[in-house]
Design a protein that fits this description.
The complex is a heterodimer of chains A (179) and B (159).
Chain A: H1 3-14, H2 18-40, H3 43-60, H4 70-85, H5 106-111, H6 114-125, H7 129-138, H8 145-152, H9 156-173
Helix pairs in contact in A: 1-2, 2-3, 2-4, 2-7, 3-4, 4-8, 7-9, 8-9
Chain B: H1 3-14, H2 22-30, H3 32-49, H4 60-105, H5 107-129, H6 133-158
Helix pairs in contact in B: 1-3, 2-3, 4-5
Classes of the chains: A mainly alpha (179), B mainly alpha (159).
Amino acid sequence: MEPVNERALVERCRSGDESAFQELVDRYKRLVFALIARTVQDRSRAEDLAQEVFLRVHRGLPYFRGEARLSTWIYRIVANVTVQDHSRPVPLSLDDGRTAPAIPSASDRQFGDFELRDRLEKAIARLPANYRLLIAAHYLDGVTYEDLAGALGLPLGTVKTQLYRAKQQLRRMLETDLK
Amino acid sequence: MFCDEALDAVEAIAAGDLTPDGRIAEHLSSCPNCSAALVRARQLERVLQRRGVPQPPPQFTARTMARVRRARWRSDQFLDVGFNVAIILVVLAVFGGVWMLLNRSGLAAVSSDAADLFGSALVMLVRRVAPSLPLYVGAAALLASALGIWWWAERGAAV
């Protein structure tokens, strides 16, 4: 979203315009839900947490100073919510019927790597919470290293290093599946 | 060049963030373990890029807005209760202060005579009003019902 439109939307939300907040939810729901569903896997829990993110956005908007981009601020809230949620025991498995039925992309079907994808999801579930969020966010369209660094309050180099470490752990966990 | 050094660079190379320089490229081409690790890292990168994006359920926005409204209503209720409690405390403090003032100034004795007078006036009033009491009770019940319906409608609108 362009900064001018973003500021206008925030101002409308602050003035109590409910339709403006609904517009904000519509704009960011795909991003927020995808990020959370990729880290918690349980679809109903993911929806609950995504709603929690928007509740916090609603409560926090009067204090949002606009120094960072709105999306960066929302990433930060997502990061806080998911990390807090990971203090709970994490029930994660792709074959227990509670998991997010991620829509397979055309290329998934083309390459027939469902089996590997399933194992990948299970391996990601075993990563530490911060690595899981980085992996979830980095592979969403339009999310840059800079966005992640801003959202997590980390230097750019640290974000890259942590991503490489997360992928290194994944590669080791999937050693026998990757050829 | 050791394997550890090359293996640390494998993910960055697979992500396209690092172009292997002469030493690393030479090691990767001569060490079967490290070159296999690079192949696996590249495959992992491809699978991660093709990972499906979970979509929010169709009613997500409506449910979120309902939750936001509920939270706002609860917060308003909390403020209302806090305000009412504060008012009650202020009224109690005022009455307590007046009572203490009356006791200390000796006006309490006078006020007990006034209370007797007020009591007898009240008894007289009740005797006069008693025949029309059912009418007053009915009117009060109607008023209470109207207030109740208004409160219920306001609550529904807020939620």
